[in-house]
Amino acid sequence: MPQTNLLATPAAARPWEQPWWRPAPGKGVVFFYLVLIHLLAIAGLVLFPLPGWRIFGLVLLLGGLGGLGTTVGYHRLLAHRTLKLNRIVEQLLIFAAMFNGSGAPASWVAYHRLHHSHTDTEHDISSPSHGGFWWAHLRWLYQSAPADPARWCSELDRGSFRFWRYAEIPVLLLSLCCGLVLGWPGFFWIGAIRLVYALHAQCLVNSLTHLGESGRRDRSQNVWWLGPLQLAAWGENWHGNHHAAAGLARLGRRWWQVDIGWYFICAMEKLGLASQVKRPAVR
Ligand SMILES: [Zn+2]
Ligand SMILES: [Zn+2]
Which of 1, 46, 147, 155 is most buried, taking the most CB atoms under 10 A from its CB? Predict the structure, then answer.
């Protein structure tokens, strides 16, 4: 992989040295969104601490589907091409991921391929090795220069993938506000509270699972206890496994390493909707 400096100016070359409240050029809207959902989530928890089972069930369902969208659709399918998937299922997973706040597929895949190519070096814009935990967890989202989809995933610059880029803000607005049909508790819980939970669950994959032994070239690690807490990640806590063999569709390696994304892929394969699945040797 070319090692060109991905960030043009000296100030932007080490963006983690900027004050935390200063977004990168063009990222003001991301910063605004992050502040907004956190404020709304806090307000919702204070005003409606108990939303009722119907609303809570919908939060779990949408969060779970969004997690599948990200881990299977964005990560294992589009970023690493570890399987082939029916086009309708693919598009549904993309919608679920965008509804969960994961952004458009091309920008996610571009960031992710950059991350694997430059893992835990200064060019890895989401690594905690240089900026620390909060940089890797949230700050890189609004303080780093965008990864260029034309360079990292030019195959996604076509057809429906272009459509999803333009649909990002409308889908997010729908996601944030649709719960209002169930009243104000629905608005806060199905909107901001779900989005904040999904955000932090997935951001822990960038931050915590890259805080393995310092000094190593690649600090990725498995974090087993993140699994049960991570409704929206579905196996992504086996991140050390993933970095060791990024071309495999399965992130768990042992039978006890629960990997919901993998079980979903196996189900799709049984139904004839997935094929050419890259699986590890059986243990
Ligand atoms: Zn990683
Ligand atoms: Zn990956």
Answer: 147
